[in-house]
Write a structure and sequence with these properties.
CATH superfamily: Divalent-metal-dependent TIM barrel enzymes
Strand content: 15-25%
Largest sheet: 8 strands, parallel, barrel
Helix content: 40-55%
Structural class: alpha/beta
Distance between the termini: 5 Å
Strand order of the largest sheet: 1-2-3-4-5-6-7-10
Number of strands: 10
Radius of gyration: 17 Å
Order of helices and strands: EHEHHEHEHEHEHHEEHEHEHH
CATH topology: TIM Barrel
Shape: globular
Number of helices: 12
């Protein structure tokens, strides 16, 4: 059975003004049958600002029998909060010991950026994690090929993250997905989406994703291609949706797990 991950970013300060405690989300994820969680740095930052501790989060995971399988997002430029950059991000990796470290570049990286990122990759993979580099259709790095080029420049335990929203909304075709070498597919993020209502892709991706099977993506074909590569890593069910967010963490977790599981039995 595929391992499905609950993603805390749905209730994070990055996408919403609301606040749902991480421990509450862990409980909801466990009750819904998720196999692990993906934790975002924005939610951790808020938790710490409210007086919480990282050890409190690891204890909360232990209580519900889940672990942090993915941590996002590592970015080495100064535009991101300090918790997303070394050394603070490395401290989170040491505490959570994720399998996957999500990462990205907001701009095309210079040689200096690549050098800095390579050093960060060395730091965050000492416990065996793989770095998954994401492409986004609204960013300069918007294709599998551009992402692979950076992966090659960095080297080491790093590969491509393919998010269904970013793939279907970007310029890549099925041919590009099929051509992605199996060894370079580091991570999969899974979701569906409603038809676009605007050309504001950032708002669309953060607020208008939907449950698998309720949108317009050809998810069955996507799954077939990924399975044909022999991918057996975790599948993040990352559905940022204002509509689902309003239903609360427990109902969100229940609906997302139930909708995604038939695609990844």
């Amino acid at each position: 059975m595929a391992r499905l991950l609950y993603e805390t970013i749905q209730f994070s300060p990055f996408v919403s003004d609301g606040e749902v405690e991480l421990a509450t989300q862990f409980e909801a994820a466990a009750a819904a049958g998720f196999d692990g969680v993906g934790i975002d740095v924005w939610s951790v930052d808020r938790h710490l600002a409210n007086g919480g501790t990282v050890s409190g989060l690891t204890d909360a995971l232990d209580r519900v029998g889940l672990r942090c399988v993915e941590l996002q997002a590592l970015v080495v430029n100064d535009e991101m909060p300090p918790i997303a950059r070394p050394p603070r991000f490395v401290e989170l990796v040491d505490a959570f010991r994720p399998e996957i470290v999500m990462a990205g570049f907001p701009t095309m990286p210079t040689d200096a950026d690549i050098d800095a990122f390579r050093r960060a990759v060395d730091q965050v993979t000492v416990h065996g994690a793989t770095v998954a580099l994401e492409f986004l259709p609204m960013m300069p790095i918007d294709t599998i090929a551009k992402t692979l080029d950076i992966v090659r420049r960095v080297g080491g335990p790093i590969g491509v993250c393919v998010d269904t929203w970013h793939f279907f909304r970007g310029p890549d075709t099925w041919a590009e997905l099929e051509a992605l070498p199996a060894a370079d597919l580091a991570y999969v993020q899974f979701n569906d989406a409603l038809p676009l209502m605007s050309d504001d892709l950032m708002s669309e991706t953060l607020q208008r994703r939907t449950l698998p099977g309720e949108g317009e993506f050809e998810l069955s074909r996507f799954c077939e291609i990924v399975r044909a590569k022999g991918y057996d890593g975790p599948i993040a069910i990352e559905i940022m949706s204002a509509t689902l967010r309003a239903e609360g963490a427990r109902e969100y977790a229940r609906k997302t797990e139930a909708a995604a599981r038939p695609y990844w039995p």
